[in-house]
Design brief:
It is built from nine helices and no strands. The chain is mainly α.
Amino acid sequence: MTNPYLLFAGIGMILVGILPVVYWRKDVELKYFLFGALTWAVAIGVKVLMDLTPLNDFLMRKFTISTFIIIIGIYVGLRTGILENGFAYIVSKKIEMKFREAIAFGIGFGGSEAIFLGILSFLSVLNLILTKASTYEDPSILFAPIIERLFVLFSHIFSCVLVIYSVKTKKIRYFLYSIIYKSPIDGIIPWMQHNIPKTVKGTYMMEIPVVIFGIIGLIGIIKLREVME
């Protein structure tokens, strides 16, 4: 029977998306959070359409598994870096944002992802419970997705603020930095999925790069605040 404690994974992910909005909402209009959320939705929509292509099957037929993992990792990473930051760049060219608004935009962007994935997780576990499906997951694993969403949120905020800073200063290199920073976060996933065991320990090991990039993002946010305020 599915452990009901796993519902808290989804709840935690949803809170990661909601609480920063509540906290940062004091001096910022809600529309900036919504702009970020809409930008995320458009970027994800395009990525989903790209996933409908037979690229994976083609690459798997043409290359060995190790080569396939390298190629698909580069593809997935650059796709995320270019599309997500690219759409953020387009929006920030149209909307004037100072530091606080830029943070709100990033929260809306990353928070939407956390809420969406949290809802999916919650509904999936709830369905297993209601149907009395005979599956088992160690309840200690429930903290992994919450940790992941929190530090990915820092990464989303940093990359969004970096893009907005690029627009404000008219220095394209900061936009390129945002792509270089964000691409490896998704790019490393295929390698980890293939090489790290699907155990509780393995799941937490997969979060280590996410935490590292999140910490880098948090430091970057602090540094950008110094030059944008």
